[in-house]
């Protein structure tokens, strides 16, 4: 099944392997596409993955969470992004752009020294910062920014757009009872916490063609000791997303302050039993939903990929760290390789120390 074709809406994928959105640190200091970024994605497309989801593109200047990330909050970015989409298509690749806002998980030094914005002023212990609770005007400004960003994604020639609603970034913060403690129309109960994402989806749909694929990445759980999104709440959100016309859901989990052993990028994946650590929630989604479910989370072996598909845990298999080390891993798996070389050391996640995101186990 892994190398069967698959459709998301009318988007035909040559196999069921997805490159999960992965920060590249290859844009220039202002967020423009560089030749290095294009070369990076050409290599991925050549490597045979069925769908590429780009590293998170910033929809608003208040949303910077990492250096040299791609930006999409101005029309000036479109020509470079068009070059990027064209380069991927030249290698018969399909590409979706992930759009995001970092919320409270933004470093103040990337925001001109200003505090980050968030639904509520809840202290973020990893960055040691307390965000500014968003005003009504700020909320609507960012919602509009997501809609405008999606319009630019389509204008740039990408095959679809993915909303980043996972990992403790802004949309994830609105969904979570831990980070959203508002008592107005944007928080207070599960229904109102969903309002921000609902308006984002409406804004995106109003800015792209009716048949343009709109996907989402969301948490299975926040994995916090006290409070936060649970698997049952995430399933309730997923049902609402299907009702709003979302075309595919990628299942992940955790945020900056989650237990390190339970975050999205876990270490010590030593045997098949350690792989696919969000599969239980993905299987819940598959049972309840009629739209494609994409599963990410420590998947390393071809046999595990096949079992996840056959058993009905997922429709598509998403990889991040293995494709940092081996961008041609899909072709290798097709040719009979059984397991990725990635050892889950997480050296590639040391964003601040690396010149660009890369596997530190490979000699320059």
Automatic annotation (TrEMBL):
It comes from the Bacteria. Residues 2-338 form the NADH:flavin oxidoreductase/NADH oxidase N-terminal domain. It holds the Pfam family Oxidored_FMN. This is NADH:flavin oxidoreductase. PANTHER family: BINDING OXIDOREDUCTASE, PUTATIVE (AFU_ORTHOLOGUE AFUA_2G08260)-RELATED. It comes from Candidatus Magnetobacterium casense. The keyword Protein transport does not apply. Keywords: Flavoprotein, Oxidoreductase. The lineage of its organism: Bacteria, Pseudomonadati, Nitrospirota, Thermodesulfovibrionia, Thermodesulfovibrionales.
